[in-house]
Amino acid sequence: MERQRRFASEKDEYQFQHQGAVELLVFNFLLILTILTIWLFKNHRFRFLHETGGAMVYGLIMGLILRYATAPTDIESGTVYDCGKLTFSPSTLLVNITEKVYEYKYKREISQHNINPHQGNAILEKMTFDPEIFFNVLLPPIIFHAGYSLKKRHFFQNLGSILTYAFLGTAISCIVIGLIVYGFVKAMIYAGQLKNGDFHFTDCLFFGSLMSATDPVTVLAIFHELHVDPDLYTLLFGESVLNDAVAIVLTYSISIYSPKENPNTFDAAAFFQSVGNFLGIFAGSFAMGSAYAVVTALLTKFTKLCEFPMLETGLFFLLSWSAFLSAEAAGLTGIVAVLFCGVTQAHYTYNNLSSDSKMRTKQLFEFMNFLAENVIFCYMGLALFTFQNHIFNALFILGAFLAIFIARACNIYPLSFLLNLGRKQKIPWNFQHMMMFSGLRGAIAFALAIRNTGSQPKQMMFTTTLLLVFFTVWVFGGGTTPMLTWLQIRVGVDLDENLKEEPPSHQEANNLDKSTTKAESARLFRMWYGFDHKYLKPILTHAGPPLTTTLPEWCGPISRLLTSPQAYGEQLKEDDVECIVNQDELAMNYQEQGSSPCSPPARLGLDQKASPQTPSKENIYEGDLGLGSYELKLEQTLGQSQMN
Amino acid sequence: MEPGDAARPGPGRVVRALRPRLLLLPLLPLLLGRGLRAGAAASSSGAAAEDSSAMEELATEKEAEESHRQDSVSLLTFILLLTLTILTIWLFKHRRVRFLHETGLAMIYGLIVGVILRYGTPATSGRDKSLSCTQEDRAFSTLLVNVSGKFFEYTLKGEISPGKINSVEQNDMLRKVTFDPEVFFNILLPPIIFHAGYSLKKRHFFRNLGSILAYAFLGTAVSCFIIGNLMYGVVKLMKIVGQLSDKFYYTDCLFFGAIISATDPVTVLAIFNELHADVDLYALLFGESVLNDAVAIVLSSSIVAYQPAGLNTHAFDAAAFFKSVGIFLGIFSGSFTMGAVTGVVTALVTKFTKLHCFPLLETALFFLMSWSTFLLAEACGFTGVVAVLFCGITQAHYTYNNLSVESRSRTKQLFEVLHFLAENFIFSYMGLALFTFQKHVFSPIFIIGAFVAIFLGRAAHIYPLSFFLNLGRRHKIGWNFQHMMMFSGLRGAMAFALAIRDTASYARQMMFTTTLLIVFFTVWIIGGGTTPMLSWLNIRVGVDPDQDPPPNNDSFQVLQGDGPDSAGGNRTKQESAWIFRLWYSFDHNYLKPILTHSGPPLTTTLPAWCGLLARCLTSPQVYDNQEPLREEDSDFILTEGDLTLTYGDSTVTANGSSGSHTASTSLEGRRTKSSSEEVLERDLGMGDQKVSSRGTRLVFPMGDNA
């Protein structure tokens, strides 16, 4: 008897343990399928379905199978135990079951009306991840990669516009969506579909903020493949990257907005507390991220770690990850910190790495980004069927659809108008339409929505978000290519042709360019560029003018200490300090020559690799954006060696 | 029930119970934390709730957030440790200090942090509540608890043995930095083992396959048995002296023998690699240590599974013994098959799709398939780590040849980084565990006994086996090699992971402590003494792995058609036994052509009646490759394998421009020889990559001109 029982429980545990492997296996197979399909599509140049869309389709199919083809098992798990002794819910629970003690971990709170669906299918239950996985594991590589591959020159040229779109635009879009949805909620209450008092204005704003995180990964992939105008690309990409950070912090600050008395009324103190929270978290995360990147830059500058690319890559990876963890440990938002860490790493550290490490880090994060992104989209497809607490409300969904379009329009058109007043190089109408069109929702919106599905409004939001993501990814993503031709946006622009026109004739072309650049970037930004070029770059990288010339006399020893010997060698190129933006790019090229002597064999290998690749330019620009710039440097080095 | 049974609550079951959903958390141990962030939950209650419950909820949220924060901090500790290690290692490498390897350093830093955590942090008591609810008679995976009107969901974490309940409520910080042991098996070991398999130096490995297998299988069994017996003697002695306070059975001793038989001479190998020590010695040591791990894992799990049927659970029982042997064979062959099959599937997929146009997709596919092996094996009840090892070997042997040049370097680098991080993580955790692990049992007699036992075990394993092998080997294993192999019996990650897996009983805790000390000692002392030992034993260093073959077995000359160097050919033939030659020819004639783009076309090797199938499976590139002059010497299979690899390279890279292959391959062959010096500085795989990239350079201009 005893033995039998033990046997049964052993078997139970056995099954229990293998479930984990099986779940993951399902995801693995879905991803493998996705990869093969995507290869097929890419091979035949189908552009209407991006890999993320494909992942969602497979996820949907798998979800359907799991939902309707597996028998509901595990009837007992729905039993509720009452324990009079417990007055609160501890994080760890030790349960004594017939002389054996089991440790249970707190998972979540379940609201009353959700208990019944819980008695369902064990497999469905198992296929549901802890939502925190998205925030702690899957999103960081995606966001870091985005920050790391921001194309620097175009990004900084358009920095003002991008920041405007990201901050102001997101705020506008959040409020507009919140208001429209609130209207629909009122209508729903009027129609009797919703109880009064369930759905507050803060909930609507919450929805608005999570819906403001655009993620046009599909559109960007197509842009990239077709070599669409780099300015449009940068605007969209930069906006979507910063957007995510803003939306995450905004969501968080809205969720902690809790007025003292009546939760529905406006409370100035709580409001300002939320605003303060927003600013504090944002600034804190920003500081944390950049601080780690600066540390990495200093470490890679002052050690000769570039002799051992593997160590360098390891260090880079670990420190970037520490940025995330430190921010989380300090109560800030890790993802935002990681984003800025990525941007700073790309701006400074990247220049200090050996060429081998540059390649390695790029590829490593590219790979992680690819996997994480597809897992998320796959999971989205799966969640439509396996998530057990969906609330489909036609009116709400309709309202949300309307709201996101209107809000996107309210974000893009007025802001573009305002920006065009100040910009020398206007954002034309077709760009605006395209940006309006590219308001896809993706991983961030989903992750924010799934984070909390405890209450009824939140579940409704989650369902709606899911549908919105599906719709936008499939329909808008698929419609990008027709839209591009319809709007007559020039494609086939070589991102680096622009650049290549300039380098040979820096001195002359820059005079022409300078005025544009200057007018475009406002005074504040120019100041930043000057500061960056004169102080930060020399301190953190091997490039730029030596600090001894830029710093005042009295800090001579420090500046001599901080300047790398390579910097002195390049003084002759010092004259054109004014054309800072291009200098930025230039400095990177100098740098390449500066650091390669550190490992002559590597340079040799570089030349060899470069020569076969030059004829096949197609190939070169097929890689990621960041890789493009890397490739460019290869050519430069090659030219050098030929001259020698 | 037997009293013995109660004290020893079925280790197998505990192990399985402890293994729960960790698999879910593949990428980062970060997820160990529950990480329930408060923020979003704040608005969850929706309507205004009563004051008191809101307060309680807030308390829970705060606690959850606090715990998330602590998780972050503990992970951060490890990451900063690793960062420090990397920086110090760079310093050491830069200054060419060889007495301390990075793993040894990671352990030292781990020790320091462990001391700080142990004595520098206040002991906060956990807020765990123990309650006894008697409604249920089984443990469910999820538990819904009704706490004053609200429902909370709890997930099963594991079973706790009664003795541990008190220790659960100790220092929070120490608890946080103590990982679930299954993390090692599910997250950290697989990349290490896969990398080992993936970077097995193929040619030298296969040349010494017989000896390696003998060392790995027979040797591990011998060493396990001898250590077990010696330890049993020590335990008996302890009983007489009265130092043993709890039970310690013969099976426990054997278990200890099994876990401590897993050698891991990573330090020694790193030094060999750096100094270019003799390739054969390197291959022997590396191959032995890699296969060793697999054998030790399976052996220890089959010893655990040894449960005699009779009343006395610790007497010898033939049925149970044979069952254990059966389990060993079953798990081993099952895992082997699983790994090999996934490797083969990957090879087929990469061969028949043109995935190599998109290196990212290719790399992702490669990674996912290799990971699937692990999951599949775990899901079927085999050992994932063993499956991953064989998957790695198969991938290196077949799939690697189908990958694009870029993917080759990507996969190599990816697994290299993962391996590096995981390995150093484990070693720094070891250092940490010496102080943060809360149930150490230090028993001097046992520890001294174990030290003596591992040296005797190692000696009894190496010398007799080498003697027997030397009877059959043409190319003898010299005395200095034997001494070096004896000396390199370091213990490392695998022994530690096996020991920490189950620390429930007194005997196991003692084993764990002893294993930890053995690892420390061997890594620091023996690892540090490698360089002096090498010079003392007169082992030649600075050997270039590929300069070595010409004097040794002349196969290159033979292949280039220099003339029938019969002596060299004979030697090669004799060295590998009949069965291996059979395997080689099978591999060369059938498997390679089926799975890769290289080798002779299947249409020539397969019998006529399956011509259609053969044509379907042979890739078009193979026909272009078929160079008559090289087809003749198909009896020198051993090195042929290497050559075909080169063919494979050129065909894959040149997939755009066909036509000029013959010229480029022959040129390439010559190039490899002339400039081997720097090419072979890294491991073989990288070497191949470089060679092939050079090949590309040769090919592309031609394609352009045409």
How would you describe what is shown here?
The complex is a heterodimer of chains A (about 650) and B (about 700). Chain A has a two-stranded antiparallel ribbon. The longest helix of chain A has about 40 residues. Chain A is mainly alpha-helical. Chain B has a two-stranded antiparallel sheet with strand order 2-3. Helix content of chain B is about 70%, strand content about 5%. Classes of the chains: A mainly alpha (about 650), B mainly alpha (about 700). At the A-B interface, helix 1, strand 1, strand 2, strand 3 and helix 4 of A face helix 2, helix 3, strand 1, strand 2 and strand 3 of B. Strand 1 of chain A pairs parallel with strand 2 of chain B.
Q: Secondary-structure map with pairings?
A:
The complex is a heterodimer of chains A (644) and B (706).
Chain A: H1 2-43, H2 51-69, E1 80-82, E2 92-97, E3 100-110, H3 122-126, H4 132-148, H5 152-157, H6 159-191, H7 201-211, H8 217-226, H9 230-255, H10 268-302, H11 309-329, H12 334-352, H13 355-386, H14 394-422, H15 429-437, H16 443-451, H17 456-478, H18 480-486, H19 497-501, H20 506-520, H21 523-540, H22 547-550, H23 556-562, H24 565-568, H25 580-595, H26 600-613, H27 617-620, H28 625-643
Antiparallel strand pairs in A: 2-3
Chain B: H1 3-7, H2 11-18, H3 51-94, H4 102-120, E1 129-131, E2 142-147, E3 150-160, H5 165-168, H6 172-177, H7 182-198, H8 202-207, H9 209-241, H10 250-260, H11 266-275, H12 279-304, H13 318-352, H14 359-379, H15 384-402, H16 405-436, H17 444-472, H18 479-487, H19 493-501, H20 506-528, H21 530-536, H22 549-553, H23 555-559, H24 566-575, H25 578-595, H26 602-605, H27 611-617, H28 620-625, H29 628-631, H30 637-653, H31 661-674, H32 676-679, H33 684-705
Antiparallel strand pairs in B: 2-3
Helix pairs in contact in B: 3-4, 3-16, 4-16, 7-15, 7-16, 7-19, 9-10, 9-12, 9-17, 10-12, 12-13, 13-14, 13-15, 14-15, 14-16, 16-20, 16-33, 17-18, 17-20, 19-20, 25-30, 30-31, 30-33, 31-33
